[in-house]
Amino acid sequence: MDHFLYRDGTLHAEDVSLRDIAATVGTPFYAYSSATLTRHYNLFHEALSPLPHLVCFAIKSLSNIAVLKTLGDLGAGMDVVSGGEYLRARAAGVPGDRIVFSGVGKTREEMRLALTGGIRQFNVESEPEMRALSEVATSLGVIAPITIRVNPDVDARTHEKIATGKKDNKFGIPIDRASSVYAEAALLPGLKVVGIDVHIGSQLTELEPFEQAYLKVADLTERLRAEGHTITRLDLGGGLGIPYTRSNEAPPLPSDYGALIKRTVGHLGCEIEIEPGRLISGNAGVLVSRVIYVKEGQGRDFLILDAAMNDLVRPSMYGAHHDIDPVIEPAAATLPHTYDVVGPVCETGDTFAKARPLAPLSEGDLVVFRSAGAYGAVMASEYNTRPLIPEVLVKGDQFAVIRARPTFDEILNRDTLPEWL
Prior knowledge:
Structural class: alpha/beta
Number of strands: 21
Number of helices: 12
């Protein structure tokens, strides 16, 4: 469910007309719904009750500080994968004891940043990283709480670029080597083992892969405890998918996911951490764009928009589908017209949809890409020297620009000429 609905013939974000936002900030832009963000966070929070738990939002899906503060004020933790994301979480007012640091390539500088600024735990991904963290923590005279990410060799049945739990992926240590790695961790100064971490991928649309992974984690927990390790936390990652189309085949609900967690690991007495990103932010955001031209091609018509692949790269990178709707609601009897929906970037890959049936559209009309809140703005670039587009946050009948569109002067002034020029 989201809060982007037609009212009086115009698509609204909560109580604000998207047409009014477009008139104020120009197009293209991203718009996010506070109500949807809140609802989706609460669904996960309620799904894990009464287990002790922390829902950590995966910042990589949507990193705007205003969004992070919206969630942080609800009690959410944050899952970060870089020093920059850590600083965003802190800037949003999230305390260090609600921040977990994931990622395969943490640098010593990032470790030092988190250890001095406060951290809940590091989700360690390899022995070399573990040794480096021990050295940094020891040099600072502090103890670094860690979980170790295990790779359970489970097929997440998702896109190959976002699957992370197979033995040939770069993430975590093979679960069969967990005992020896935990034994080494227990001997390293500056480290305190607090739990186990696992994450098998993103946009999972069925629960069985989670079940396979979590049962392996449950067995590992009991084995590690028998070997003398204190395991008090299970970080179970994220990855629950969202519906990108209007088909009747919706992914499992957070309540189903919570029930699975309770069934597979709830008996272990551990605090549960999860790291959802897409399901909290995906349907909480839309991309609004304007039609520049309707071009008649050979055997097809092209809808040329002012948004491009640099603004929303998912269709080009993953072949991803986003539903596209007009901002002005078409009449019920309107017959669709088929378009290839494209942007102005000089690449054939700048294509959002092929042979997509849509209500007939004309130059100047507004359209929205639905389910664009996750991995939209965060993956945007200034390719073709196209400015990053504004982000807008809506709450009830209010809206605010939470990231402005840079001017061309601001973009050009970042470059500097060497003396010889």
